[in-house]
Amino acid sequence: MQVKEEVVKVPLSVDERWDLIEKISKQTVEFGARKHTLKDAIAELTVKPLTGIPVAIAVIYGFWAFFCEFAGTLFTDGFMVRLFDEHWLPWLQSVFPGKETWLYFIFVGDPAADNCFEAFGMLTSGLFVIFGVVLWAVLAFYLIFAILEDVGYLPRLAVLVDTVLHKIGLHGYAIVPTFLSLGCNVPGVTATRPLETRKQRFMMMTLLAIFVPCGAQIGIMQDLVPEMMGWIFLTLAIGYLGFGFVLNKIVPGKSPEIIMDVPPYQMPTLKNIMSKLWIRTSGFLLVAVPFVLLGCLIVGLMYLTGAMDWLAAVFGPLLTVWFGVPSETVAPLIAGFLRKDLAVGMLGGLMEQGIMTTFQVFTSVILLCIYFPCLATFALMIKEENWKEILGSLASLVAMVFVYGGLIHLVGIMLGVA
Amino acid sequence: MNETEENFGSIYFAVLGAVALAFGVAELIATVPGEASWGIMEMSGIFLPWRAIILLSVGFFYLSSVKNFAEVHQLAKAVMASIMIWIVAGIAIWARIAGSIPGEETWFNSLEGFLASYAPPYCPEMFLLPFSLVIVYYVLKEKEEK
Amino acid sequence: MESGKLPLKAVVIAALVLLALSTAVISVDAHMPGAKAPPEFELSPIVITDDGTEVEITIEDVGNYHNGRMAEFKTNMLKKQNKTDAEIGKIIEKEFAGATGICPCSSCAFRAALLGISELWGDEIPERADIKFISRRPTPGVTQCLQYITGTGPKVPDVKSKGELQMILPDGTEVTDLSVPSLKKYMVDMDLSTWNFVIIRKSTGDEFEVQVKEGVHPEGFFELRKKVKVDKMATPEEIDEFRVQWEAVRDAFLTQPDWELFEGVEEPEEPFPVGGAIFFSILVTGVGLLLVLSFRGKAR
Prior knowledge:
The complex is a heterotrimer of chains A (about 425), B (about 150) and C (about 300).
Chain A: H1 14-28, H2 38-47, H3 49-95, H4 102-107, H5 116-119, H6 122-151, H7 153-166, H8 175-183, H9 185-190, H10 198-211, H11 215-224, H12 229-250, H13 270-305, H14 307-323, H15 330-338, H16 340-352, H17 358-370, H18 375-384, H19 387-415
Helix pairs in contact in A: 2-3, 3-6, 6-8, 6-11, 6-13, 10-12, 10-19, 11-16, 12-17, 13-15, 15-16, 16-17, 17-19
Chain B: H1 3-30, E1 36-38, E2 41-43, H2 48-65, H3 72-100, H4 111-116, H5 124-132, H6 134-145
Antiparallel strand pairs in B: 1-2
Helix pairs in contact in B: 1-2, 2-3, 3-5, 3-6
Chain C: H1 2-25, E1 46-50, E2 53-57, H2 59-80, H3 85-96, H4 104-121, E3 131-135, H5 140-150, E4 164-168, E5 174-175, H6 180-184, E6 196-201, E7 206-211, H7 221-231, H8 236-255, H9 258-261, H10 274-299
Parallel strand pairs in C: 3-4
Antiparallel strand pairs in C: 1-2, 3-6, 4-5, 6-7
């Protein structure tokens, strides 16, 4: 006769689960005194707030300063601006036939332009944005990111910021998708998958889409308005934490604890770094190149057909009155649906023409960051979220743009700079 | 690590910590006018306040590592302080390398222009860099003993 | 709570101070209405002795003197038009508010004097009475700058001894009346040849000629100047264009080195960067050593 063992499945609460883990570990694991190594001691220093925060400041300083020198000083300012403005643009302007034709306008752009930010053709601004600025910015970002990842510092940074991020219903782990999004929002959104509940994922994705600019966008911003970068990041960080706090209060659902693997510190290997760099940068270019070129094409066509002027006339009052930016900002905002870096590049063109004040440039850059994720990120969000969440994200976006954009304008008026 | 090495380490890093702390205070003061120079040492740039904070932390790390220097947790503080100096000084050197390669009028810099990029003045962290390398000896020593 | 309020208050005060400062920066230049304030520049003062007393003359001193003289000239003109004192006061205040007096002419003359003095006297400090200028440019900016340096102009403060200033136009005409109304008669066709000065060390008879280089003035500058300033036939666009060119010339004289501005001045050869070479050698040796050590460590 066979006896069937009946297993009764009783759902356990979080505390009960932890108790069970403790019981099992006591029975199966032998505990003994272990002498700390130098690595352990260093690891400890990087997660304790008193010592960990100064270390984090040094690491982030190193990250940012390397980024600026590598992408800005060496490649973009050192070689690419000269290559594109002094050689590529004049050559293209001299050989491309039919200066008055729409084809010339689409591919080369403004015939009077003397730099690639102003020209705005597919082969001028389009290629300059991708290969002159963004490629180097993304390369620098992913290089440092891969080193930090392989050394084992990122998980420790996550532990360090855990307390702060708990205040907005997230965990220290959120630093990983946030950092990844500083390179490109697409892998950032993908990295939200380990988050346990839909609330956490929804919050994380919405915050990434709104408040975290990608490396490409940062590269262009650094090139155009280096003196404003501190203020831009401060404004975005305030928005990230403030809006996260609000979302945590209004979005239903739970934010359970998660366990993160914190590996020991180790020397990164060149092979690993290179392969990560290659995979991420090539992946980025595959997404970026078609969208930037498409963006230039669409914006060019909209100018040619007069659609841009019509949109500027329709949305002009809203932009001018509520956000305090000129109606010409419509064009970058439209381009921003496709690529944010391209859109910031267009703002550069407006700056050079003297259309915008410094504060308007600041407001426009913030608006471009927060008003909508780029098309590639949005497509991924559609895949990752259900329709209810998508609508929720969009509603949050709209509310955020109006509240935050209006608030920045108000602060500008109060300070007398808007 | 024998007693002599431990004593030397304590004294050496106490002095280095005090110097780093003094440089940190100087950088912090220099943030008010935006720049300051002393001989071939210069404190300037948009990241000056952050560098001042890092240097002050370096000073505190070194000084707090002095007591019972041979103990691994104490040694770790000195190692961390040295790594922080390496990050800041490394970036300062990297900035010079990045600026030295492209020329102003030509694609690449002339030899004189290239070498001039490495000429003084230097930031305080670059002066601390060679002295911070002493920690490598203690790390190797600790590794050997293990 | 108090500590929370303080930064906001401080920020508002700081913002207001910045705002006030920014209005000061947006100055109007009486000589070129609507012109932007000069950029940041560093020009060493002209150092001379006046009857044994050391005197430092800065470009700001020259600008203020030029400004004062032009305001005086304008006042006299308005008086002739029967304007009341109140009206004159208002006009002068409006036209000269925030003006620096640093224009292309005064800044060029100042740079030429600096260069000439350093060439003729070297490290010595010239006595004011030993300095003579021959100017080819009959403008108030140039004339009043050189009058201030030589102490030959009216109302130059604390003058004990006087140098000499002669105005000889490129065609050889000598202008003896250096008042503004007199100069106006000669300010018609002024091309690059008027941007010329001779500095003379009277005690030795040594001379140094300063001629502004071609290319310092933007293309079409002289024609546009005539249209705007002499013929008064310029369109608003041409006036705007001239303002931009005027600013560019002034800024060039304030910021560019001598060899880019004046003929015959050779760019000083940069000394070989020994410090840089030493640092680079140490850097390369250090990196090499690091690589060798790390390879040896791996091999073990």
